[in-house]
């Protein structure tokens, strides 16, 4: 039995939504990890 196109589209949009959420979480986590390192480097550069 074939799936209806609307059902397939709904599944695709749901997958796309989750991919976008996970990508944004990954970018946010990376930014939170990098930010303290950038602040430390900036502080060290000001001392010298």
Describe this structure in words.
Keywords: Membrane, Transmembrane, Transmembrane helix. The chain crosses the membrane at residues 20-41. It is built from one helix and no strands. By secondary structure, the protein is mostly helical. The protein has one domain (1-48). The radius of gyration is 21 Å and the shape is rod-shaped.
What are its keywords?
mainly alpha; 48 residues; 0% strand
List the helices and strands and how they pair.
Layout (H helix, E strand, L loop, with lengths): L4 H43 L1
Stretches with pLDDT under 50, minimum 5 residues: none
Task: Decide which structural class fits the backbone.
Answer: mainly alpha
Strand content: under 5%
The beta-strand count equals 0
Whole-number total of structural domains: 1
Task: Please tell me what the overall shape is.
Answer: rod-shaped
Question: What is the helical fraction, as a range of percent?
Answer: over 70%
Transmembrane segments: 20-41
Keywords: Membrane, Transmembrane, Transmembrane helix
């Amino acid at each position: 039995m074939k799936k209806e196109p609307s059902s397939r589209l709904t599944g695709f949009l749901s997958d796309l939504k989750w991919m976008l959420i996970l990508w944004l979480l990954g970018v946010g986590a990376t930014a939170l990890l990098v930010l303290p390192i950038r602040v430390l480097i900036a502080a060290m550069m000001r001392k010298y």
